[in-house]
Amino acid sequence: MRIAFFVNSIADEAGFFTTTSLALAALGRGHDVCYLTPGDFVLRPDDSLLVRATSVKGAKAKKADTFVAALQSDQAKVETIPVEDIDVLFLRNDPSQDADERPWAAHAGILFGRLAADRGVLTVNDPDGLARAQNKLYFQEFPEKVRPKTLISKSIEEIRDFIDEQKQGAILKPLQGSGGKNVFKIASSKEANLNQIFEAVSGEGYLIAQGYLPDATAGDIRLFLMNGRPLQRDGAYAALRRVPAKGEVRSNMHVAGTAAPAEITPKILEVAEMVRPKLVGDGMFLVGLDIVGDKILEINVFTPGGLPDIAELHGVDLSVDVVIALEQKVEMRKNYAGKISNAVLATL
Questions:
Q1: Between helices 319-336 and 307-314, what is the axis angle to 10°?
Q2: What's the chain's average pLDDT?
Q3: What fold characterizes domain 2-124?
Q4: 225 forms bridges with which residues in the sheet?
Q5: CA nearest to 239, candidates 320, 306, 180, 293
Q6: What is the tens place of the pLDDT at every residue in 28-62?
Q7: Torsions phi, psi of 264, nearest 5?
Q8: CATH of domain 136-142+216-317
Q9: DSSP string covering 50-95, please?
């Protein structure tokens, strides 16, 4: 089986990325691995779709940093191949990273992912599902019971009124965005710097204001779902608690958040079950939920990270389980010869 990982940029990949962990798991099970970026697709006049695939000569399962260094070095080879030579196209890019400087690249994975799926390549997460999830409005389509109280607006007056209604304060963040960029906690609408924060965040478009959840001071829980259900092996869940650094409202790892073990309670499983139907319906194969108490702060469908940290915390590499699931889907696709849609197959 050949798995192609679609990423923003090979030069920006790192050993601690979940994509790297998935690639090593695939190599460990004897599969071929290659990487694609937004500029690597070619649609020829005869309607054939090709990709410029980057791989490491003779790559084997090895240390993550060594693998990434080889991928970014002269050891890597680039070859143009028919997309049909790929069994799985795994879309693992973050559109928000390209939205400002390379807007043409932000949606390349979705656009060409559709073409790949039409040609029989298992494409996950399903491109049509990802198209519906390109900003945080997607979150509003899930049950109100699992969402914090939320306002979406570009009006400073609306936002001030909303903050005044929240006894614990509010969180402000851009509708488009990821990774904790431009996320602010506002205690009161009378804060002196609210106007400056509003100007900074609204420059990126609409704002989301959410009622602050006090439990968030202890961090959130990142829980992976695969095929709509919590990813786990023998009771070890693909989950961790992301603990924010002192004085930080964000728990993202790249802003000094740290990983700690997470207890997966019946309440958390109930929250996960509540969002399962839509995730399955949208063909969302691998998803990360960020949970505080009985509320979900984010549903990460593009590049949920944390599997290497989870492996270190629990001694269980659940990336292998993800690859095994892909193997099973490829076998199903062969058995049914196109009679099952990509969106359905993605979450079977």
A1: 120
A2: 92
A3: Rossmann fold (3.40.50)
A4: 230, 287
A5: 306
A6: 999 999 999 999 999 999 999 999 999 998 777 67
A7: -95, 105
A8: 3.30.470.20
A9: EEEEEEETT--S--HHHHHHHHTSTTEEEEEEEGGG-SEEEE---H
